[in-house]
Here is the input.
Amino acid sequence: MNDPGAGLADDLGALDFAYLTTSGRITGVAHEIEIWFALDGGTVYLLSGGGDRSDWVRNLMVSPSVTLRIGDVKVPTRARVVAAGT
Here is the structure.
């Protein structure tokens, strides 16, 4: 996730999970998942063990407008897939 905003304080990085809401690529219905994350400055990284086989990754590739919630902070943002080695 690119720069989800200044509202994500460093102490949020100590939390175990983030919650990502994507729009279903076929239905358009909102889907929320619980996922481990890493916070680096204003960038949140989510790891997909299944690569682009994961539904949430496929959803954001079609519609990159997502909502990210960490703790009590909920931010609408745009997601993108980071290529390996970059």
Notes: The chain has a mean pLDDT of 86. Residues 55-62 form the longest helix (8 residues). The longest strand covers residues 18-23. The two ends are 14 Å apart (CA to CA).
